[in-house]
């Protein structure tokens, strides 16, 4: 298992994160447990902040909160000077409750409800990223009703095919997101927006997909979007002030993933914007990016306890742990690959190949496939790395399993930021017949 951030093997042969021994964390908080390396999350924020800058171009880093969001996370993101992207009333509510500066909140979604848009407009968030024409009408009506003006970006689909899982590609021409840049109607939409009393049109947004490990995809996105901005500027006689390029920066989950060097990528992206704008004699738009996974994925580790093990009639070795697809649905959903280790025996010889599975009533309830481990014993602690993104945020109560607790660890201290659900929580919305 690759070690990230502050992860170490201590003198007892135990996995340590944020100078906390994982066996102590398990004693204190129980399992399953999401452990977040606060130092690594902050370092990742700083990496984006310090490397996505340029003398000539204004930039903004917007954390895509759907990867992992809680009240404490909102506070951290604000402390690190990032903005926040939300995609639902629930995410927006969390940000508001955490006192996140509302002008630094961006709202996404391909089917925002009237209630969500009203909440966003009344709160006075920074930008709404508009997905379609029908949403524009809705926004205009709400703004009229409350006598408010809102700044927006239009989400467009630049028609770029990325090399990632089908479910997280977002800019195929058949994708549900945004308006195609090949749709001639787009120029009418921009023209209409330019004379709208209630809507301040700032520019465009595109997001080509997630877990992208090929830097060329981002450069292609920049080329296509800058060409498109040139075309719109000419046809509509308008200056595009902002370009939001979305997120999608891929991370290491297992040996097959070779992440892009982010420092180089971020610098190259801004260089390419500058040279395209210079070539077209366009003013430099403000450039935003929306990293989610790359801020939190490697900072998260899930700790489980081993129950039984089983060798099937066909010879397959299973390790049963006390969590499952309810706390990590990504293996079932995307065929994701994870790395794992026995956290209390990090230096022990590996003895076999095991599939780590949970306790949900599905054969697809797999957490990590074919992992080399020492032979696991009942009570051993299994650590699964890179579970910081899209694990807690996608967790469910399937099989009525309470969702695990989330803790931040840093410099030998641990802090619970989401308490473990109880059986009482499981039935709290149920009503008797
Ligand atoms: C999901 C999403 C992101 C973040 O993607 P990551 O792969 O987590 O970086 C950013 N922008 C939009 C619009 C998204 O839908």
Helix/strand layout:
Blueprint: E1 8-9, E2 15-17, E3 20-21, H1 22-29, E4 33-37, H2 38-51, E5 59-64, H3 71-79, E6 83-86, H4 89-97, E7 105-107, H5 114-123, E8 127-130, H6 133-146, E9 150-157, E10 179-180, H7 185-194, E11 199-205, H8 215-236, E12 242-244, H9 262-280, E13 286-289, H10 293-296, E14 300-311, E15 317-321, H11 330-334, E16 340-342, E17 352-357, E18 366-373, E19 381-385, E20 405-410, E21 413-418, H12 423-427
Helix pairs in contact: 5-6, 8-9
Descriptive notes:
With 433 residues, this protein is α/β, with parallel strands linked by helices. The chain has two domains: 8-30 and 299-427, Beta Barrel (Lyase, Ornithine Decarboxylase, Chain A, domain 1), CATH 2.40.37.10; 38-295, TIM Barrel (Alpha-Beta Barrel). 30% of the residues lie in helices and 24% in strands. Strands 4, 14, 15, 16, 17, 18, 19, 20 and 21 form a nine-stranded mixed beta sheet that branches. An eight-stranded parallel β-barrel has the order 5-6-7-8-9-11-12-13, surrounded by five helices. Strands 1-2-3 form a three-stranded antiparallel beta sheet. The longest helix has 22 residues, at 215-236. The chain is globular and about 70 Å long. The termini are far apart. The model has no long low-confidence stretch (mean pLDDT 96). Keywords: Amino-acid biosynthesis, Decarboxylase, Lyase, Lysine biosynthesis, Pyridoxal phosphate.
